[in-house]
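Comment thread on ticket #2218

A.B. wrote:
> Attaching the input chain for the structure job we discussed in standup.
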Amino acid sequence: MAKASATVFFCRECGYESTKWLGQCPACHQWNTMTEAPKAASGGTPSRMARSTGRLGMQAPVRLDEIGEGEETRQKTGFEELDVVLGGGIVPASLILVGGDPGIGKSTILLQLCRNISEAGRSVLYVSGEESLKQIRMRAARLGTFGANIRFLSETGLDRISELLTEEKPEVVVIDSVQTMYQEEVSGAPGSITQVREATMTLLRIAKNFGITIFIVGHVTKEGTVAGPRMLEHIVDTVLYFEGDRNASYRIIRSAKNRFGSTNEVGVFEMTGKGLQEVKNPSAFLLEGRPEGAPGSIVTCTMEGSRPLLLELQALVCKTSFGMPRRTSAGIDYNRVNLLMAVLEKRMMLHVNDCDAYMNVAGGMRVNEPALDLAIIMALVSSYKDRPLPDDTLVIGEVGLAGEVRAVRMAERRVAEAVRMGFTRCILPAGNLPAARSVSASGEGGAVKLIGVRTAAEAIACL
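C.D. wrote:
> Ran it. Output below, let me know if you need it in another format.
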């Protein structure tokens, strides 16, 4: 009798392969991540896709000095915010993975990107495995007009798509989404680990062999990571994540991996009726609607890469009605807030152990930077004592367990951003005063009053 086709187990996180199910992956030590999938066939006749993507043949190894030098030519996306995140633009022949929650705007921004690139005279192919051509036209109608350089295809068979790419060789291709693609030679349903892995490897070979830039959309899991094997992020050149609350109008795109640029930059967009629009002044956008003279409301500055962003922190402290006080934080690390409240209790003799405390970053932003420590403490004390801080005051600084205030990075950029937004007073670590004063000496921050503090108690005295 013919032997039944074997199945193997793959780890969803790292791609580790095992012949039997394991509760814990031996490679990444994650629990309950092993998924059963058909074993890929070995040997035999190469598939149509393998033949079509391997036409260039084998290449001989060369020395580094034998590789021709050429200027780095990057393609502009038409979005300055996205160009910054990509490191200056799109690198030709790169494979870019775009992930994000459902409905966050992945397909919208890629459709707008395709329109911008096609208007620059480049050929673009948009492939959708989730929508029909009529549905794509309905969605594109609100974004404006599209030129003749962009074409659309509704297809899920990767064999047909790969043949089309190798024959016509468009300069930019969008695959929406990789979880809907399937290959006839590979066992497993669309979206399975085997199909997603093989589809990504096929698209990678096409991108490198034919110099085609390919964007692939990836669904995310409930943990916020791209669905499929973890090795999917290792295969691609760049990983972009869309973040933001679906109920809010702003969106943030950041790079989790970028072989051709920094991963510290972010782009800010606003969802409108005509698609995603760039936010040129994100600080003003995030501070919009801020209450005046409200206790517990503090403005601070966080750094997203090299870009300073002003944020409003809100705190609410009140006596608890239960035996155990309740602590809640939104947008800030919960454990960090508890640590700073312990510093208040021990070093500043502020009895908050019998108080409920609620901490929030207005606008739905998520931040995790020690430079916000002093602002968190000031917001908590302001709410506890019911004393507001002046509306034109910015607070930055890292707080240690001894109650000391430590210097933060890029203090001069934070101060310059505060002055640009009209703030006239800044409470900051004493160690950052020389750099901040140099900003004032250059004329950028001449209207700001700098207050250097060495301990959190000195900052609280400003209330």
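A.B. wrote:
> Thanks. Noting for the ticket: The first strand starts at residue 7 and ends at 11.
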